[in-house]
Each structure stands twice: as C-alpha cells, then as structure tokens.
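ENTRY TYPE: paired fold submission
RECORD: A
CONTENT: sequence, then structure tokens
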Amino acid sequence: MTPRTRLVVYLVAIHALFAGIAAVLLMRDRLWLFVVELVFAISITTGLLIVRRLFDTFRLPEEGARLIRGREFTSRFQPTGQPQVDGLIDVYNQMVDHLRDERTQLQERQYFLSRVLQVSPLGIVTLDFDDRVSYVNPAAERLLDASTAAVTGRRLAEIASPLAASLATVALGESSVVTVQGARRVKCHRGTFMDRGFPRAFLMIEEMTEELRQFEKAAYEKLIRVMSHEVNNTVGASNSLLHSCLTYASALAPGDREDFTGALRVVIERTEQLNQFMGSFADVARLPPPLRRPAAVREVLEGLRRLMTARPEARAIEWHWRLDASEGAGALGENTDARPLMASIDRGQIEQALVNVLKNAMEAAGPGGRIVVTLSHQADRGVLSIDDSGPGIASEARAHLFTPFFSTKENGQGIGLMLVREVLTNHRFAYSLDSAPGGPTRFTITFPKL
C-alpha cells in the first residue's frame, strides 16, 4: 500500500468515527444534524486537498529523477508558490540548464573533432583496452594501405601492412621515424588518453617523405656546390701546371723521361677522374624539371632491353621481360585492351632512372641470377615492377635506402638511387623498394595512364 493510499484510508476512518459520534448526538438532538454534516464536509474536503497538494509536491522529485534518467534536459518546472518547494525547483532548473549546456558543448566538440580527424593529413589510430585497433581516420587508412574494416578489431602486428608492423614496435610515449618500402619516411608517436577512467593508447602517423627529401636535397645541393667549386678550381689549376710540366720532359735524360711523363699522366688522369666524380654529383643537384611528353611505356622498355642485355655481364643472367601485360592482358593472358599503355614522361630522365634500377638488379642477382621485368595495368594506373633474385636488402641498410651518398657497394658513390628518387618524385610517380628476408628484391613504380 502506497503512502498516499494509507493517508486516504486514515482520513476515511477518522471521519467514519466522527460520523458515529454524530449519529449518537443526533439521537439526542436533531439540531446537531446540520452542524455535524457541515463540519464533516469541510473536514474531508480540506483533508483531501491537503493530501493532493502534499503528494503533488512529492511528484516533483520523482518526475525530475525520471527526466534525468532519460537525459531529458529541456524540461523545466514552474514555481508552485511554496517557498521550500520553489527553492528545490530553482536548484533543479539551474542543474538541468547546466547539464544541457554541457551536453551541447560536448556534442559540438565531438562533431568538430570528428571533422578534424576526417580531413587531417595526420593519420590517427586508436586502440582499445586490449591493444586492438578501434578507430582509424582516412589519412591512417591511406598510410596503412588498408580499410577500416580490414584493421578494426585486430592488433597492429596482425595487420598485413609494412607500416603497421613498424607501428607495433613504437614504445609508449616515444616518437620515431620509420622507413617503409625503402623510400617512404613516416613519423610515428604513441601516446595515451583517458577513457572512463582508464588509459587507452593512440598513434599519430605523419608522412615525412617529401619534407625530409626537400631537407636532404637542400643540404646536399649546398654541399655539392661548395665541393664542386673547390674541386674544379683546384683540378683546373693543377692540370694546367701538370701539362706545363710535361713540356719539360724533353729536357730530361731518356732514362728519366719515361718515369717523369708516366707519373705526371697518372696524376692528370686521377684529377680528371676526381672532376668526373664530382660532376656526377652535380648532375643530380642540377637535375632540371621533367619535360614530359606522351610515350608508349612498352617502347621505352624494349629500348632498355636491347641496351641492358647487350652488356657482357648481363649474358650470365636469366632475363624475363613480361611486357605483354602492357597491352591489357588479363590473368590468363587474354588481351582485354588493344591500346598500348601510354604515360606522360620525360623519356630521357625515366630511361636514366630505369638504367640505374636495372644495373642495381644485375649487381644484386649476379651471374646465374634471375631478373623479371613486368608491366601491367591496375585500373587507371600502370605498374612496372623489377624483381631480382639477389640476397635481398640487409636490415641495417633498409632504413638508409634513397639516402644521399649512402651505398652498400664497395666503391659506390650513393647517387644511383638518389637520382632515381629525384626523377620519380619530380614525375609524381609512386615507387617502392622492398624485399622479403633473404630476397628477392622488388622495385615497383606506379604511374597514371593516359
């Protein structure tokens, strides 16, 4: 039985008692009938009004609690005229106004944050309490080369992406620059944020490839200019003096003349080689913007095939040129597009870059090795891949690929891949260099078709 029902029963019982007393009094004097009925009516009416107003007051907290549980913060109570109750109503109205304002601000911030994450060039990856991916923004999808559906609910080490494997090794609170597929440089930071009182991890991923390339380029261009200036001045003056000295050879005894001229010619030859050595670096620094023209990619590769296979060292290598795919061959070799694969390129620069890539592949494969050159279609893009059967890329060298002046060769200058990087970047072609442990190594170039 509710408190209201008990109170009504009490009022009915007390008035029934009054009715009994009135009946006794009426038997003695009928004049009391009108007085008793009047008092009885006034009393029960007053009692019911008091009960109603009392429980109307009790209903306010119940209704307020119901609205708060339902997160309904737009409803407000009107004053009742009772000072104590009106004080509670005023407090409640202030509280729901504050909660409504906070909820509105929170929704606005969440919407703003979601929009920022959608358009941000920074990749954002959040992990749940079990270190599984719970959210990736579009930039992170692009950098990971995987869709949200493919990574959500999985640990970073379980995702089939070279970058994801590198992200899994970044320690909490640390930032590092990792190398992906030979050419790309990505800055990663792992931090934490609080979610319902517990820490969760997030990762910020920033593409640094172009920024680092521009920084490196500015640095080595300045270095090359200074070195070339000094070397050219020194070599030019030295060779002039050496050639002048050769004119005195006739004044020497025949027995000394041959040694004298031989020594001077060796020095002249070495200074000229030094000049050529510096010139190769200067050529990279002075690489002009590409003069692009439409060209058939297969025709370019056919010319390179004749050039490269004519080398003596190439005859000991097994070559496979799979260029039919450039005509639209499908998975089973059927021709699905009769048009040749065209691209907008600076033919001279692209040929020079590909020569460097093919030379590296030949050196890696070695005698008895194997090189496969494949040209294929992918939607609106063309893909050129060069595979060699060499030992692969050493782990210590992987982070330094495409770095200026870095070479794993005994007498390497470190400008081959540097030239390739500049040519392909200036053409805005995507490229990568990677290998499985122990080989083979694959160089891939992706370019838009015409």
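RECORD: B
CONTENT: sequence, then structure tokens
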Amino acid sequence: MHYIHPMVLKVGLPVLAVLVIVLHLIKKKIKYRGGIKAANTYFVKDLDIYRNRRRWYTFVTIVMEACIITSLVACLVLAARPAKKETVNNGTKKRDIFLCMDVSYSIYELNADLVESLQEVVAGLDGDRFGVSIYNTSTILYVPMTDDYDFINQKLEDLKVYFELQKEYMDKYYNEETGYLEYNHSEYDEFAEYQEKLEYYDSGTLINNYSKGSSLIGEGLASCMYSFPRLDDEDRTRIIIMSTDNAQEAISKPLVELDEAADLCKKNDIKVFGIFPNRDNWSGMNTTDYDTDESELKLNVEKTGGKFYKQSESLSVNDIVADIEREEALEVEEVTITKVVDQPAVPIIVLICALSTMLVIGLGIRL
C-alpha cells in the first residue's frame, strides 16, 4: 500500500494535531465571564440525575470529538489516494480470437440461441485475447482485441438484447407467406418502438444497404480479418469464430466475396470456425438455396484449416473450445506492466461509520 499524494498526509496530519491541541488549550483557559451567578449549586451537583447527565454529556463530547477527528483523518487519507501496485505480465497470451457475427435478420434465430454459447466460449478459453466484429451490409468493430473478459461479456450481454429484440420483432410482424412485415393499426406504436430500438443497433451495419444489399459475407469476414492488431508484423495464433447463414443478398458486386476472404485468411494463417443454422431455422426471407450456402461455407471454412459446425441440439460449446485449444499457440515476447489500483474502501468505510455515529448521537440528544 502506498499513497499517490503523500504530501497531503505529511502536511495535513501535523496541522490537524496542532489544531486539536490548540483548541483544547483555549478551552481550558476559557473562564466564566459576566451574567448572574447561582448560589449553593453544590445541592444540584449532588443529585443523581445531574451526575448522570454530566457523565452522558462528557461521554457524548468525547465520542463526537473522536468522530470528527476520525472523519478528518479519513478525508485526508482519501485525498492522499491510497493505492497498490499490481504487476501484470502481458504478451504471453496464447491466441487472438475474433467472434465474427452476421447480424442480418435472416439469422436472428441462430444468433439468439448462439450468443449465450459464445459467452461460454469466452469463459472457457483462458489466457487469450478476444474481439467482436458484427456485420450486415457494413462491418462494426464492436469490441477491439482485448483481454478484458468482463468487458467482452458485458458487450455480449448487449448483443443478446439486440438479438432478442430481432427475434421478438420478426416473430410478431414478419409474415413468411407474403415475405413482408405486417401489423394492425392498433399495433403501430409498438411496431414503431421496436423499430426505434433496433435502429440503434442496426445503424452502423446497414450503411449503403439500398445500393449494396445485405448479408455481405465476404466483406464481413475480410473486415474482421483486417481488425486483428499488427497483422503483418506479429506472429500469433489467430482464429475467427463466424456465425452466418451465408445467404448473401447483394445488389451490387461486393468488394470481397467469401472465397476471396477465405483465401486472405489462409494467406495470413487465420483459421475460421464457422457455425451454420439448421434447416428449421433457415429464414423464409432468404432467396438463396440452403444446401448450396451450407456447402459453400463449409468448403471455405475448411480451406483456412478451420472447422465447420452446424446448429443442432448436440452442438457442444465444449467441442468448439476443445478444437480451438488444439490450435498451437505461438510464443510471443513477454511484456511486464505495472498498474496502480486505487484502494479507497477502508477510509470510506471509516468515514461513513464516523459520520453515522455522529448522526445517531445527534438524534439521540434531540430526543
């Protein structure tokens, strides 16, 4: 334990001590001045009620003074910022892993079911760096590569809300027979509320979607690949876990097709682990063929040296984790970082206790 601003204590504590001593000396020198003196007060001082009150007054005075001094000391300690140093070894992390998620509405069933499993993937792999990339027409680097697992799980919780909203929205308003969103006049306010909430998440993933289309799988995978830090000059084991139905609905020719993106991943030694929806969750919105999309994704995933998974009740997250763990981790240079972490808990508790004691005694005196 050390203090970031130790001068606050070095100056403050002596000043406080001198102040307390001076006030006590002044108090002793103060004598009765003026007014009307009462005779024979010793009769009153001999009464039990007077003695009890006198003892209570003395006790309260001492406790109140101790609480005030304790509060001031606690404030000085907080101002000095108690902290501790932590030494963290970075750079020995095993792998860099990106979660690359197709967030188009045709795959809301898979994503709603899968996001909790992806949280288990994060929890199941120790000592790796993670990032999250989401895409539809355009790509968002949702979580840059980091080893802050709490932050990643927090962001995945936000994605879970997004996918649950997609699922509720499509279940309520999408008519598979007509292929349109439909709602009654009485449902308009609720429908508009859903759209407003979803636009918050959709906005960055639908840039130029009217001219480019949606579910641009190749561009999403390539964008995710180029989000790896120091891709050209650092040797690390890099993996992409990608969830998609591979149902590309392009209006104009994409900048990168899936096979080209897979070639780029292979060239940069990045393995892709693809997760594909089962036939029951294949959206009626898709104009592409299920078997063709499945075989194309499987071919390109395996081209990178990764593995293809199909959504099912038997799809085990542990199996995915085990497959990723089998990927040999490249050794990297170790970097030691010293972090300073504030430790305000103890002085705050002391301050609260002192102030609470003063409050209780003050209320007791009034009663």
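NOTES ON RECORD B: The chain is about 50% helix and 20% strand. The chain has a mean pLDDT of 82.
STATUS: closed
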